[in-house]
Amino acid sequence: MLICLVLFAAPLVAQEHPGKEIARHFNNNAGRPCVEYRDGSQTCLDGESMTSSPALRPQNRAKFGFRQVANRKFWLIAAGMYASAFYDVEGAQHCIRVRACKEANPILGQTRGRQYGVKLGITTAALIPVYYLKRLDMQDNAEGRKSPFPWWAAAQMVTGANLATGTVNWRHTKHTNCPALGAGCR
């Protein structure tokens, strides 16, 4: 916090003495941001200058706890994300089992366990920013602002991508090349 204060306050202090080269930034004994110039002179901000600058004002945003952010709506969206990941993996596994296709993504692999591990990990990694987007949306709403991008839209992009690829996999199995007597096709 103090480092940010010094970095934001230094340009304000330097504006008081245009044309002087700054040698270093530091805090004086009172904790005020100061600038030392190459000619040896120093300038420090007083308390009023620090709070009057919009760049130095602390952000007093509303704070929301985990349970407030991760409410029923959040978990419903998360359940949809995970369900679509299951749908995608099962569609791919069915397509692989009837020998209609093979997994094109080398990271996912051909086995069910590997696909579940990778897909659920990716879904969890995508859910973390959704949580923070929801918290930012709640803070904006508390301040009376409307967020330009709703938090649930990011989650729906993941869900939509999983549903699209899963549906392609399931549809692809209708045109299968099963061997005679259905060996390997279940």
Write structural notes for this entry.
The chain has 186 residues and is mainly alpha-helical. The protein has 2 domains: 51 residues, OB fold (Dihydrolipoamide Acetyltransferase, E2P) (Beta Barrel); 114 residues, no CATH class. Helix content is 56%, strand content 8%. It contains 6 helices and 3 strands, in the order H-E-E-E-H-H-H-H-H. A 3-stranded antiparallel β-sheet has the order 1-2-3, covered by helices on one side. Helix 4 packs antiparallel against helix 5, helix 4 runs parallel beside helix 6 and helix 5 runs antiparallel to helix 6. The longest helix is centred in the C-terminal third of the chain and has 31 residues. The protein is elongated. The N terminus is likely disordered.
Please specify the SSE layout and strand pairing.
Elements: H1 2-16, E1 22-27, E2 33-37, E3 42-44, H2 47-52, H3 66-69, H4 72-97, H5 112-142, H6 151-172
Antiparallel strand pairs: 1-2, 2-3
Helix pairs in contact: 4-5, 4-6, 5-6
Number of helix segments?
6
Through-space gap between termini:
62 Å
pLDDT < 50 runs, ≥5 residues = 1-15, 47-58
* Largest sheet report: 3 strands, antiparallel
Beta-strand segment tally: 3
Q: Helix amount, in percent?
A: 55-70%
Order of helices and strands: HEEEHHHHH
Structural class: mainly alpha
- Categorize the overall geometry: elongated
Oligomeric organization of the protein chains: single chain
Query: Any idea what the radius of gyration is?
Result: 28 Å
Give the percentage of residues in beta strands.
5-15%
Number of domains: 2
Strand order of the largest sheet: 1-2-3
Average pLDDT reading? 75
